[in-house]
Amino acid sequence: MRTVILGGGFAGMSALNQNRSAVVIDSKEYFLLTHRLVDVIETGNPSLAAIPYPRGVIRSKVVGIDFKSKVVKTTSGIYSYDKLIIALGYEQDATKIRGNVQKLETLEDALEIRSKLPKIKSVAVLGGGTLGVELAGALRGMGKEVHLIEAQERLLSFMTKESSQFAESRLREMGVNVHLGTKVESFNAGILTTTKGEFKAEMAIMAVGFRGPKLIEDLGLTNKNGRMVVDDYLMSVDHEDVFGAGDSMTTKGFVPMSAQVAVQSGKLAMSNAMGGSEKFQYKQVAIVLRIGSEYFGDFMGKFVRGSMAELAKRVGIYKAVRMVESI
């Protein structure tokens, strides 16, 4: 049986670890540690977030899928499959904000931001999730004036209140201007227009707007915000020989976008594609952030900070690297 995996991120590599004979197709030459993009902005070192793919990963861009004939069409040719796992990750949608907003989706985005910072004194970070909080702290540590804009009434709204309060307190202590309950409308000519007034900034960086790849919609697959809808077994609701994993899929309920969930879903998608019948139940063990040199977050649903949080963060990075290098 020939299994093809589209996407070599956390979900794709996790699936490949379950079946080393599968074919992986990805448009990049490297595995991207997305949660280290802020580190790249701080240091300018792309190797912190990019790990070369093992031999055998096909570098090509998917341009279409013929589900009836079971073939994937790419820029380098056509690949047939018996089972297909779609694990194409996420994209950022900046269309809801008028003006020139900088995305932070790829390694190239991080390096572009890094290259512009020497000429910039003030930055607006749009979104107070994990990416936005870490980015705001990093930029402030680099001496920039920072506005952190969050539409909810607290930062890290999906985490414990202790993590939320710690993040806000620490950022404010550093001098970050935190704006809660505030929605961004536009960014033009150095002016950020929000529902609570205007702010001056030389650059606006998106840390929100994550959705599934546009390709999912283009393929005509049932989707929610661009994320392919799958059943409890991660099988596409449209095609029984197609499975979804990672950020590019969701169930009829809700599946969070995270590396942990992507790894879990990639493993199970491959297992079920190979004949298994296990229902998907994700588990968020740890969500850990860094502001400056301080690590904190939620571990097993409880607030942690300091050495325990740092250890959890480093273990997560180590496991991701090993997942790729062991193939």
UniProtKB/TrEMBL annotation:
Keyword entries, A-Z: FAD, Flavoprotein, Oxidoreductase
SUPFAM superfamilies listed in its UniProt record: FAD/NAD(P)-binding domain
Keyword Flavoprotein among UniProt keywords: yes
One Pfam family hit: Pyr_redox_2
Keyword Protease part of the UniProt annotation: no
InterPro entries named among the record's database cross-references: FAD/NAD-bd_sf, FAD/NAD-binding_dom, NADH-Q_oxidoreductase
Cofactor: FAD
One example GO MF annotation: NAD(P)H dehydrogenase (quinone) activity
Alphabetical GO biological process terms: aerobic electron transport chain
Domain FAD/NAD(P)-binding intervals: 2-266
Gene3D superfamilies: 3.50.50.100
Family: Belongs to the NADH dehydrogenase family.
Protein name: FAD-dependent oxidoreductase
